[in-house]
UniProtKB/TrEMBL annotation:
Subcellular localization: Cytoplasm
Quaternary structure and interacting proteins, as annotated: Homodimer.
Family stated for the protein in its record: Belongs to the triosephosphate isomerase family.
Record protein name field: Triosephosphate isomerase
CDD domains according to UniProt: TIM (cd00311)
Catalytic reaction(s) noted: D-glyceraldehyde 3-phosphate = dihydroxyacetone phosphate
GO molecular function: isomerase activity
UniProt KW keywords: Cytoplasm, Gluconeogenesis, Glycolysis, Isomerase
Pathway: Carbohydrate degradation; glycolysis; D-glyceraldehyde 3-phosphate from glycerone phosphate: step 1/1; Carbohydrate biosynthesis; gluconeogenesis
Major subcellular location class: cytoplasm
E.C. designation(s): 5.3.1.1
Main enzyme class: isomerase
Entries under Gene3D superfamilies matching the protein: Aldolase class I
Source organism (scientific name): Agromyces neolithicus
Length: 266
């Protein structure tokens, strides 16, 4: 567990181009003045639509914000009409890519094999994949932990070395009125961290929670997760500011805990 806390936002397809640009400007001002984002205690990333990527890169220039893509082709380049490859995304400044979201699986039939190919090409291009995993049906925490561990291992088959951000998003909680229960999230996140610890060349990898995540949740989760993956609750920059404040407090608490453990060990 690292002290740094990660907060990400996926805009999906909710904003038109003008609305997205206005949101970028407001949020860029917010994060530029937020001490924990500015000094790196809180990692912040934004994932807009493909058409919004370049305006986002421009708006967040001069901040530590990472701009991402909501998908990435399984191939680097070639005759793949409508696809966008990781090398081109990296060329224009994309630093993270959302891979394997439940909506991509449900609406477009993406499989574990597709997800693994996208993770591989992202890492080869220097892009950190945000690997979305989660159980489809509401089951107990132990069963959910088993199911998501299998998904994680499938996503990383054949992947080159590099950091990954694992976004745990139980499918049944996405778009719902409430996130999954805290104890449920904690059990699954602990298992996913354990799986990452068994893998080589995944230094710095983190486990964050999505699925109706919003203000107040991170404070309840505490050290159980490494951050949050936000959706509609981040459309209001004021709500996002509150989550960043919670992330700052958690990062400080994690740093204090790490220092205390180091002192005891020495």
């Amino acid at each position: 567990m690292t002290a740094r806390v990660s907060i990400g936002v996926s805009l999906k397809m909710y904003f038109g181009h003008s609305d997205a640009r206005r949101w970028f400007d407001r949020v860029a001002e917010l994060v530029a003045g937020h001490p924990a984002v500015a000094d790196g205690r809180v990692e912040f990333f934004v994932i807009p639509t493909y058409l919004q990527v370049l305006p986002a890169v421009e708006a967040f220039a001069g901040t530590r914000t990472l701009v991402g893509a909501q998908d990435v082709a399984a191939w680097d380049r070639g005759a793949y009409t409508g696809e966008v490859g990781a090398p081109e995304l990296a060329e224009v400044g994309v630093r993270v890519a959302e891979v394997g979201h439940a909506e991509r699986r449900r609406l477009f039939g993406e499989t574990d094999t597709d997800v693994a190919a996208k993770v591989e090409t992202s890492l080869r291009s220097g892009i950190t994949p945000v690997v979305c995993i989660g159980e489809a049906d509401r089951v107990d925490a132990a069963a959910a932990a088993d199911a998501t561990a299998v998904q994680l291992c499938a996503a990383l088959v054949g992947a080159p070395a590099g950091r990954v951000i694992v976004a745990y998003e139980p499918v049944w909680a996405i778009g719902g009125p409430e996130p999954a229960p805290v104890a449920h999230i904690a059990t699954v996140a602990e298992r996913l961290r354990a799986e990452l610890d068994t893998l080589e060349d995944r230094d710095g990898s983190t486990v964050i929670y999505g699925g109706s995540a919003g203000p107040g949740l991170l404070a309840r989760l505490g050290h159980s997760v490494d951050g949050l993956f936000l959706g509609r609750f981040a459309h209001d920059p004021d709500a996002l500011a509150g989550v960043l404040d919670e992330a700052s407090a958690l990062a400080d608490a994690r740093s204090d805990a790490h220092s205390a453990n180091t002192a005891v060990a020495s």
